[in-house]
Design goal:
This protein has a domain of 89 residues. The strands form 5 sheets. It has a 3-stranded antiparallel beta sheet, with no helix packed on it. Strand 11 and strand 12 form a beta hairpin. The longest helix has 27 residues. With 275 residues, the protein is of the alpha+beta class. Helix 3 packs across helix 6 and helix 6 packs antiparallel against helix 9. It is built from 9 helices and 12 strands.
């Protein structure tokens, strides 16, 4: 995870073996080792890695905690895509675009690591992919089908880019989400809460206060072994939610609802990939 500390990056999080429902997620930050699976080891795949990073021994005061050693002043930073050259060569041949070593391409002449990442993320969220490879996903790392040509690549890359922005809570549409929390009070997530009332589509954090307009399918949505809308609140039992936390939760709800829509779109767009 040092590659997520040194510079702006993206990372795929998934499992090699799991007893939970299989899942994948994205992060720019350090993660806990059970980010997408409650019982199994999670693996982080950074999109870019720092090669030949200069290091030096530091004399630190006793008790100092360092997450990483800072680079010497003036050190040259070199990051490279964490993608196999043979895979990229075959990918480029199929989509008939020229490979570039960083960022997204213009998708008319070039494509880059971020385009591949977004394509990958879309494929891994395709319901058809998850159903077809369900047994394999329980026992090994996911395998990435290559696009047959440029058309499915471009379609899936676009959907994957939207998914990544949603899951990082960076999508512009999430910035204006209303907190949707109509009852004033202490805002404390009390013991034995949250509780969901499907008839009213409410998520109660205590007997009186609730988040409104949360559809059952959003409340039930899972990422790997976790029911997202429930877990976020359970982890905050005994705490009062400030305005930022209330808004953050509503953004999560909106992101999950949009994820469901995009996953439905993926079922049609994933038809042009090779086995």
């Amino acid at each position: 995870m040092r590659h997520l500390l040194a510079f702006e990056n993206l990372a795929l999080i998934t499992t090699r073996q799991t007893k939970d429902c299989w899942g994948a997620f994205v992060s720019r930050l350090l993660i806990g080792h059970k980010a997408v699976a409650a019982f199994d080891i999670n693996t982080v795949f950074p999109l870019y890695v720092r090669r030949n990073q200069p290091r030096k021994k530091l004399q630190l005061p006793a008790g100092t905690l360092m997450l990483f050693e800072p680079e010497p002043e003036g050190a040259v930073r070199v990051s490279t895509p964490n993608l196999d050259p043979t895979f990229i060569a075959e990918f480029a041949r199929r989509v008939k675009l020229e490979w570039q070593e960083s960022g997204p391409g213009d998708l008319k002449r070039t494509f880059g690591p971020e385009d591949v990442f977004h394509y990958l993320y879309a494929v891994l969220h395709s319901p058809a992919y998850r159903e077809r490879y369900a047994e394999f996903l329980k026992i090994d790392f996911p395998r990435l089908p290559l696009p047959a040509d440029a058309a499915p690549f471009l379609a899936l890359r676009g959907l994957g880019r939207e998914l990544v922005a949603l899951h990082l809570l960076e999508a512009p549409a999430l910035a204006g989400v209303n907190a949707g929390f109509p009852v004033a009070g202490a805002n404390e997530v009390e013991k034995s809460f949250p509780k969901y009332v499907p008839e009213q589509q409410r998520v109660h954090i205590n007997a009186d206060q609730y988040f409104a307009d949360v559809p059952p399918e959003v409340w039930d949505f899972r990422v790997g072994g976790y029911q997202v809308g429930e877990k976020w609140l359970k982890d905050r039992r005994g705490r009062s939610l400030d305005f930022n936390a209330l808004t953050h939760y509503r953004q999560i709800v909106a992101a999950l609802a949009e994820t469901r829509r995009l996953m439905a779109a993926l079922a049609a767009a994933a038809g042009g990939t090779a086995p």
